[in-house]
Amino acid sequence: MKKIGALASLFFFAVLASGCFLHPMVSNQGMALCHFSVDTHSQVLVVYYSYSGNTRRAAENLASLLQGDLYEIKPATSYLAPPALALLRSSAEEQFSCLPDLAGPLPDLSGYQLVLIGGPVWRGKVARPLASWLALNDLSGKKVAPFWTSDGDAGAYAADFAAQLAPVPAEGLEISQAGNLTDAAMQERLTDWIVRSQLVPLAAQMGK
Ligand SMILES: Cc1cc2nc3c(=O)[nH]c(=O)nc-3n(C[C@H](O)[C@H](O)[C@H](O)COP(=O)(O)O)c2cc1C
């Protein structure tokens, strides 16, 4: 079963890598012709916040796999290094129930059907800059799916994310210890998620 999943993932990746279209296969051994395609008309936006780069890497891979657009959430004032300082600030913000201001214009979401939203786990929850972005944007009518990176303890991230959203999110993806993943392993995790959760329509047509 695992093998079939891996093969399906590999195949899907090959379809995407080939510009989303596989040309019909012609066989002289009586095999059926088939044509697979990914519906590229459904515009995809990958939105992310990343403090130290792990979520950015996943987001860039996703955008490239799905030929989507990327939007990076930036706090008006960056969270300082080292992480202990970011932790202090985010704890204070949480305690006082306040969210950070964001830099730059918000994206125009009107052209997107699918919005993939990524961020790091902070104290078992959605990182504060991503929480700001969720509070400022109307995602109703969109298909939304979260992905998040952690050091291994995602706590209540999925529930916290869902609680901040009007549409019910599709199945999410947790990437633990992303810094230890090779590029190939990262792409396999993402591809597997895309296939499993049917985030984009895959069409298969049998020919004669
Ligand atoms: C303020 C802060 C809080 C964090 N809290 C958690 C946590 O509760 N659980 C966990 O597994 N990792 C936690 N981490 C680690 C990050 O979630 C993890 O390294 C993530 O991959 C970082 O993503 P980024 O590089 O995109 O910022 C925390 C990191 C920071 C800076």
Describe the protein's architecture and organization:
The protein has 208 residues and is of the alpha/beta class. The protein has one domain: Rossmann fold. It has 6 helices and 8 strands. The strands form 2 sheets. Strands 2, 3, 4, 5, 6 and 7 form a 6-stranded mixed sheet that branches. It has a two-stranded antiparallel ribbon with strand order 1-8. Helix 2 links the parallel strand 2 and strand 3. The longest helix has 16 residues. The two termini are 29 Å apart. The protein binds flavin mononucleotide. The site of flavin mononucleotide has 24 residues, from helix 2, helix 3, strand 4 and strand 6.
In total, the number of strands is 8
What would CATH call the class?
A: Alpha Beta
What distance separates the N and C termini?
Answer: 29 Å
Q: What is the correct CATH architecture?
A: 3-Layer(aba) Sandwich
Contiguous runs where pLDDT drops below 50 for at least 5 residues? 10-27
Which class do the helix and strand fractions yield? Answer: alpha/beta
CATH superfamily: Flavodoxin domain
Average the pLDDT over all residues and give the rounded result. 84
Number of helices: 6
Q: Strand portion, in percent?
A: 15-25%
- Any idea of the CATH topology? Rossmann fold
Label this structure with key terms.
208 residues, alpha/beta, Rossmann fold, six-stranded mixed β-sheet, two-stranded antiparallel ribbon, 6 helices, 8 strands, 20% strand, globular, binds flavin mononucleotide
Briefly say what this structure is.
With 208 residues, the chain is of the alpha/beta class. It contains 6 helices and 8 strands; from the N terminus they run H-E-E-H-E-H-E-E-H-E-H-E-H-E.
